[in-house]
Amino acid sequence: MIEHFFDLDGQLLKLDESALTECRERFAEIDRVKEYNQLKMLKAFTACGVAAHHLTGSTGYGYDDAGREKLAEVFAAATGSEDALVRSAFMSGTHTLTVMLFGLLRAGDTMLCVTGRPYDTLCGVIGLDGTEKVGKGSLAEYGIGYEQIELQKDGSPDLAAIAAAAPGKKICYIQRSRGYADRPALSLEQIEAVSRAAKSANPAIWVAVDNCYGEFTQMEEPTQRGADVMAGSLIKNPGGGIAPTGGYIAGKKELVELCAHRLTAPGTGREIGCTLDTLRQLYLGLYFAPGVTAEALKTAVYAACLFEKLGFTAKPGWREPRNDIVTSIETRDPAALCAICRGVQAGSPVDSFVTPEPWPMPGYDSDVVMAAGAFTLGSSIELSCDAPMKEPYTAYMQGGLNFAAGRAGVLLAAQRILQTRKEEGQ
């Protein structure tokens, strides 16, 4: 059917048919997780007693905003957390993580990151590579220390090193997804093992997880596997492609409360913060999140399978377990990298006619090329593809609100690759 709408190469259509057949069993596994998570979400809504009046927002200070607090209650119930902050006031995933870190850490404390170098935009927050000297308010400028433990060669956490370093540290920080690093996303079992190792050596340490891209990919969340607190963006998995902005912090009640006083102001905490007209979208996005995440996972598995057939290395491979919605495609060629992004852009519902070009994106140490024809600017749960323009020229593809359209975007990216090869005489 897809050939009726897009002019695709005959060879590519054969690879597409083969990939669909091979991925059938993996899709069935994803659907089983989706069904469980969707029923879990429905139970959270019904058990918490969501009513029509909760969908109406507030203005001004937002005192006594019942819908805001009910949304947090539903999110906590759906993720197995004691408490949650779910707010449109969070401007990005990095902002949400910043609030979490500044809420939990004090001068003299040390943050222990156990998954190697954090995502690029968080380095400025921490104060790495000289950013502690630029006077913009990093953790380092406030006298907060930082130590880092690299992952092992196979991408797994170094549990012995974590246990050895944990004493005296305030936070054990885990970045679940890979960012632009060549390593797998952490599984819930690995997060649990990290928590156990850190707390065996330091029972007072708090395990904090950057859960971006990982929500609803499994039947549980990190707070059900040893994490004390986790944070993420609502324009990724938990917003279901409907939330227009926002983020969440969820976990132990005392820690969420500390973060609330950093989000607003010391002394006011979660008591203020108007929701304007966003509540209905946040509720609806959360309700749809399990299904939309499953569609993104199918798109990721399919993309890995198709690009492997084209001779590229995809990580994780299509047969491998999935702990986030990201697929990386190693091209080793800047032209091929740009071709993939331009094909994804051509298959986007918004700005399909735009040609992505590398540019110096704020917060990154190299030019970045990004395909993002989304209804919500920067939404990673919608099909997108981005990459730093540096070796080995790896494209990072994520999202897909529905598999039919996601598949089309992947095929158009592959088509651009074939065209590039022909132009280069390969």
Brief write-up:
39% of the residues lie in helices and 13% in strands. It has 426 residues and is α/β, with parallel strands linked by helices.
What report would you give on this structure?
There is one protein chain. Helix 1 crosses helix 9. The longest helix has 31 residues. It is globular, with a radius of gyration of 21 Å. The protein has eleven helices and twelve strands. The protein is an alpha/beta fold and 426 residues long.
List keywords for this structure.
single chain, alpha/beta, seven-stranded mixed beta sheet, 39% helix
Please render the helix and strand layout as text.
Blueprint: H1 10-22, H2 24-48, H3 66-79, E1 83-87, H4 93-104, E2 110-113, H5 120-126, E3 145-148, H6 159-165, E4 171-175, H7 188-201, E5 206-210, E6 229-233, E7 247-251, H8 253-263, H9 279-309, E8 313-315, E9 326-330, H10 334-346, E10 368-371, E11 384-388, E12 394-398, H11 403-423
Parallel strand pairs: 2-3, 2-4, 4-5, 5-6
Antiparallel strand pairs: 1-7, 6-7, 8-9, 9-12, 10-11, 11-12
Helix pairs in contact: 1-9, 2-3, 2-9, 3-9, 4-8, 6-7, 9-11, 10-11
